[in-house]
Amino acid sequence: MKDETRFTSRIAMPVRSMAHRFTYVGLIAAAFGLMMIGKVDAVLMERARTLVTDSVAPIMDTISRPVENASQFIRKVEALWGMYEDNESLRGDNARLIQWQAVARHLEAENIALRELLNFSPEPEAGFVSARVIADTGGAFAHSLLLSAGSRQHVSKGQAVITGAGLVGRIAGVGTRSSRILLITDLSSRIPVVVEPGRYRAILAGENTDRPRLIHMTPGATLSIGDLVVTSGHGGAFPVGIAVGVVSEINEKGALVSPFVERDRLEVVRVVDFGLDGILRAQPIEERPISAPAGSDQPEANATTGAGNEVAPESD
Amino acid sequence: MKPTFGQRLDTITRNSLPVLFTLVLVVVNVVPLHIPGFSRIVPVLPLMAIYHWAVYRPELMPPLAVFSIGVIHDILSGAPLGVNALVFLTIYGIVVFQQRFFTGRSFIIVWLGFGIMALAAAVESWILVSILSESIVEPRALAFQYILNVGFFPLLAWLFMRWQHFYLRSE
């Protein structure tokens, strides 16, 4: 018995600790390896990602429901609190909007008449898939959300995700019953946009902050705070004219855009299938010469930035 | 006396609970809370769990489990794959290596230790993500996240302590 203990402490313990150390170092190397593979083969990693998210999606769907209900309840109580003020401001809004409605009706009629005159080919009808947000990535690095719909619900990669307020992001990965949205604020998000009212073309680049930045502006463009930013539809990834946000800050480095969509309020979003082929599904992007200098580290980002080539050379 | 099958099953279940609970924390970490601005600075719950078990019962949290938890955390949070796996392993390694420093210390010291470790984790992940994305990543959200990490730790640690007491008593 005593010998046995001595044996354990003398030989077995060091061997065991050495084995432990070996495993530890091996795992560190594996982590580095994963990072390298992720950098080299993004497609493979995305597939691995969707495999895991797909299997956890039902659990997260279940957990997120009561939290959503609680937050809805809190919001209702808050709404009760400010009901009088809300009513007053809504009445004012209503009066204003009725005027706008008249204007819009008039414009619509005029539009139809003009289209008939010009034989304008209408844009394709859009299909929608509504889905619940089941996970919001906790963390300072990636800005993405998980959705409770996947390829089973005909969600596919590259589709635009919107709410009533405007553009949320695009589908970056699809599993059978879950999918991942890359928000417009994410570091690797590049979206071709147009800044109203001058119709200046630009690329909206996420920076992992709350406000993405406009890059590759049309040279000589003059922006002012409050200018509306909408998708331009260049590259075929997004349809034309989805509201994105307003220009909220202009400094020497460029302009920052405040998105219309509040990430923390997202509960149900719409994945939009505009029937566009999209540059993300067309593969021969690699062959095209890509001169865009920023954000060319990921193939998806490449695709969108590549589309921006036609937009404009860099202005700053 | 040899333990019966039921006893052995009981031990296995009980020993794997810390890892399983940490996995639950990984999932809880990404549940949307609908609090404005919170999702970007939400505290890294699995880091606290890994630190806690590395300090008190490292044998219940083997390196392979730490690695897997990190990878799953990366996958669910959308971070570059491998970053949190490496960060968690580093913290785990340092704590286990400095085991003697932590044994029998008061909670304040353990908390202080977590403060230092969480800082190391934040800096390490910031450097890694910056290298991987080939740009300087905005560090402000990370700083707030660090403060929340340190502030949140006692709550989770208290929970783990209660569990551990129960666990030790029934052993």
Structural class by secondary-structure content of chain A: alpha+beta
- Span between N and C termini of chain A? 79 Å
Count of DSSP helices of chain B? 7
The structure class of chain B reads mainly alpha
CATH topology of the largest domain in chain A: Thrombin, subunit H
Order of helices and strands of chain A: HHHEEEEEEEEEEEEH
Shape of chain B: globular
Number of domains of chain B: 1
Mean pLDDT across residues of chain A: 77
Helical proportion of chain B?
over 70%
- Beta fraction of chain A: 15-25%
Q: If you compute it from the alpha carbons, what radius of gyration of chain A comes out, rounded to the nearest whole angstrom? A: 25 Å
Number of strands of chain A: 12
Strand order of the largest sheet of chain A: 1-2-5-4-3-12
Low-confidence stretches of chain A: 278-316
**Helix fraction of chain A by DSSP (H/I, runs of at least 4):** 25-40%
Largest sheet of chain B: none
Number of helices of chain A: 4
What is the quaternary state of this protein?
A: heterodimer
The run of helices and strands of chain B is HHHHHHH
Which key features would you list for this structure?
heterodimer; A: 316 residues; alpha+beta; Thrombin, subunit H; 3 domains; six-stranded antiparallel beta barrel; 4 helices; globular; disordered C terminus; B: 171 residues; mainly alpha; 7 helices
How do the strands and helices of this protein lay out in sequence?
The complex is a heterodimer of chains A (316) and B (171).
Chain A: H1 2-40, H2 42-81, H3 83-118, E1 127-136, E2 144-147, E3 160-162, E4 167-174, E5 179-183, E6 190-195, E7 200-205, E8 213-215, E9 228-231, E10 243-251, E11 254-259, E12 268-273, H4 299-307
Chain B: H1 5-29, H2 45-56, H3 63-77, H4 83-97, H5 99-102, H6 107-133, H7 140-169
